[in-house]
Specification:
Blueprint (H helix, E strand, L loop, with lengths): L1 H7 L7 H6 L1 H31 L9 H31 L1 E5 L4 E8 L2 E8 L7 E3 L9 E2 L2
Antiparallel strand pairs: 1-2, 2-3, 3-4, 4-5
Amino acid sequence: MARMANEEAGIKVLTLEEANALLPLVRASLETLREKRSKILRTQAQIEIEEMTGADKSGDLTAPAQKAVVALMEDFHGQTRALEQELEKLLRAGAQLKDLDSGLVDFYSRRDGETVFLCWKEGEADIRHWHSLTGGFQNRRPLV
């Protein structure tokens, strides 16, 4: 019953086994998110370059530069939507991305009647740590 109430509130509470079973999806998603973020940053840089180099003597963007910026902005918005969709996929599965660079992911779980986070960091074979909802990575403890 508690599981249903938590899921209705938008929180997916997982067992250790369920969370560990998600790790292949999480690993693939981290790679995808990094690729998407890299594309977004490259597009953002291209927009900035076009804005800096596409101005005429009065400081206004030339027509070709405006056209290029509009096209790049459309790409940028599509790329950010794709990144958001990938993040949503993780959330729907029950994974909470905490830090993309380090690959830090938490999963809601129950431990001794309390809602906690199971804590996994990319490079670890499986989930071996947990922490309170307010504790964070620095306060994680071994599961055993």
